[in-house]
């Protein structure tokens, strides 16, 4: 029994004994004190335990923090820097948003999609990804069987409904949405649509993020074409890529495949993550070496970047795994160097 139910119980017992007139005044006083205490209790509880409020800063969106995190950790994704903080700011500062915010992140692995989701969570909640109001679904883990799509769909609707009724400002992250059983994603449509409320629950303050690799090949193809035309990476605009991923998400197999979400334009922002180039990998390597308390020498950085694979074969422009394998590579190289030093 938690403290809250204990107090409630206590009040009920007190009320039951009130028929004894002589002590009724005193008991009422105690009951009143209990009620006041109960009101104060939430306040105290929220000082120590996470609450769905800005009390003790549990939920206190800070877009500056997001921008700073992106600036110092995310490389080669100027479009993400451009779109994500703005979209989030517009939604979070709006006291009465018309619908939930839905962002769909697309692109090659290792481009930073998970990373950005993490920074978003950290900028919204004091506990970041550990907040009870952040919900992550990974398709291959949570929805592995195509034939169970109907059951998953019902479960997911229940989860979203009960989670949002606990806290309107909830964050839902759907990883590998391209691997979600076809049609399932339509189950969340009612929650992100322009409804005032469904059974008294208002979903419009929640944020949904979809992560997928769809559109990755299209983005890369478009970038190679622009590269051949001599266009600089930093000159690539949303216009150059947005419609591509929209098409990609729609036509490739998987989660968003022919989904109503797209047909009804419920995705607010398609965010392209571009494949990373060697100099971005070097920046990630530098950060990782520093993080492990070593000096990032040019030699060490180049060694890490040199061990990654690049494509296409003719010009080796882009890293196949982005910054994803960098941490492991750095770890491996540092340990083997230490090993060499010991046995040299
Ligand atoms: C928001 O984050 C920035 C950067 O981390 C920090 O300097 C600032 O104090 C934060 N603002 C609030 C109101 O917490
Ligand atoms: C909220 O969602 C999680 C999945 O992240 C689920 O396990 C949990 O049961 C849901 N909470 C409620 C109260 O339904």
Verbal overview:
- It is built from 14 helices and 7 strands.
- By secondary structure, the protein is α/β, with parallel strands linked by helices.
- Mean pLDDT is 86; it is low at 5-22.
- The strands form 2 sheets. A 5-stranded parallel sheet has the order 2-3-4-1-5.
- It has helices at residues 3-16, 21-48, 63-73, 78-93, 113-124, 139-142, 149-166, 189-192, 216-228, 238-251, 260-263, 278-291, 298-306, 326-343, and strands spanning 101-107, 134-138, 171-175, 207-212, 269-273, 310-311, 318-319.
- One 2-acetamido-2-deoxy-beta-D-glucopyranose binds next to helix 3.
- One 2-acetamido-2-deoxy-beta-D-glucopyranose binds at residues 62, 64-65, 68.
SSE sequence, one letter per element: HHHHEHEHHEHEHHHEHHEEH
Any idea of the CATH topology of the largest domain? Rossmann fold
What percent strand?
5-15%
- Overall geometric form: globular
- In the CATH hierarchy, what is the superfamily of the largest domain? P-loop containing nucleotide triphosphate hydrolases
Enumerate the spans where pLDDT stays under 50 for 5 or more consecutive residues.
Answer: 5-22
**Assigned CATH class of the largest domain:** Alpha Beta
Radius of gyration: 26 Å
C-alpha end-to-end distance: 63 Å
Q: How many strand segments? A: 7
Query: How many domains make up the 3D coordinates?
Result: 3
- Any ligands, ions or cofactors bound here, and which? 2-acetamido-2-deoxy-beta-D-glucopyranose
What value does the average pLDDT take? Answer: 86
- Percent range of helical residues: 40-55%
């Amino acid at each position: 029994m938690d403290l809250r139910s204990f107090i409630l119980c206590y009040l009920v017992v007190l009320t039951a004994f009130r028929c004894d007139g002589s002590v009724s005044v005193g008991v009422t006083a105690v009951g009143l004190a209990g009620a006041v205490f109960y009101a104060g209790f939430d306040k105290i509880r929220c000082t120590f335990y996470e609450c769905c409020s800005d009390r003790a800063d549990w939920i206190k969106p800070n877009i500056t923090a997001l921008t700073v995190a992106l600036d110092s950790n995310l490389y080669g994704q100027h479009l993400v820097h451009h779109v994500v903080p703005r979209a989030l700011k517009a939604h979070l500062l709006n006291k009465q948003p018309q619908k939930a915010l839905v962002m769909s992140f697309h692109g090659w692995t290792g481009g930073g999609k998970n990373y950005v989701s993490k920074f978003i969570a950290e900028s919204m909640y004091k506990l970041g990804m550990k907040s009870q109001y952040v919900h992550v679904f990974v398709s291959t883990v949570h929805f592995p069987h195509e034939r169970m799509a109907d059951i998953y769909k019902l479960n997911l609707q229940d989860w979203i409904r009960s989670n949002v009724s606990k806290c309107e400002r909830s964050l839902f992250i759907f990883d590998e949405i391209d691997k979600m059983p076809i049609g399932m994603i339509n189950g969340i449509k009612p929650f992100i649509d322009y409804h005032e409320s469904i059974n008294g629950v208002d979903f419009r303050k929640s944020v949904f993020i979809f992560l997928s690799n769809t559109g990755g090949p299209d983005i890369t193809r478009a970038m190679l074409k622009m590269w051949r035309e001599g266009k600089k990476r930093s000159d690539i605009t949303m216009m150059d890529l947005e419609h591509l991923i929209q098409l990609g998400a729609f036509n490739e197999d998987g989660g968003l495949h022919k989904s109503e979400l797209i047909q009804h334009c419920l995705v607010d922002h398609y965010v392209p993550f571009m494949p990373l180039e060697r100099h971005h990998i070097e920046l990630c390597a530098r950060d990782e070496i520093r993080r492990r308390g070593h000096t990032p020498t040019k030699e060490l950085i180049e060694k890490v970047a040199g061990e990654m694979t690049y494509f296409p074969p003719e010009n080796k422009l882009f890293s196949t795994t982005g910054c994803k394998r960098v941490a492991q590579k750095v770890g491996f190289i540092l340990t083997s160097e230490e090993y060499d030093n010991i046995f040299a």
